[in-house]
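Running this now, will post back.
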Amino acid sequence: MAGVVLAAGPGRRLGLPIPKPLLPVQGKPMLAWVLDLVERLPLAERVLVVGAQASEVVAALFSGVPAGQADQSPELWARRGGVTWRILYNPDWPEGMGASLRRAAQALPIGMLVFLADMPFVPEKAAQAVLDRAGDHPVAPGFQGQRGFPVYLPASLRPQLLALRGDVGARGLLRDCELIPWDHPGVIQDVDEIGDLGGDG
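Update: finished.
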């Protein structure tokens, strides 16, 4: 299974001069928290989908990537610490999350554990619980009945993922998603406003 982090959106609502994934949360870039979590999980592959301000995001978090390469190469491999990541550029990022999921599905014929770059407060135990339940159907943690992240998407959904359009993501594919009840709001807590940066980690 591959861990897939979606980090292609522009984050316009925050209105800041730096890319949203690089906003500092408790001393390090928001996206770094998500990458750290994915690196701790037992996954066969780790994939980052980038789009808006791709080169700036990648240069801040990965060493050895030439300036400007992330938004000029459809795919590149980079190391972060001792971990290898596959970085996919999504040229259709203005289209929304559906385009990023489609880009990941194009590259991956296996099941995906999907994370969002603006959700730095997801507990590792919640991600591991989803991973443990991965099988033939989608799985996600749920907080007070609301579906959260990460979301496991089985390989059987790949044809539907390849057909995604717009900013709805995989919502329409998750009608039979198994929800694992979770008591930590980090599984649903994203950063859309500056005030959201004060999560409890």
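The first strand starts at residue 2 and ends at 7. More later if anyone needs it.
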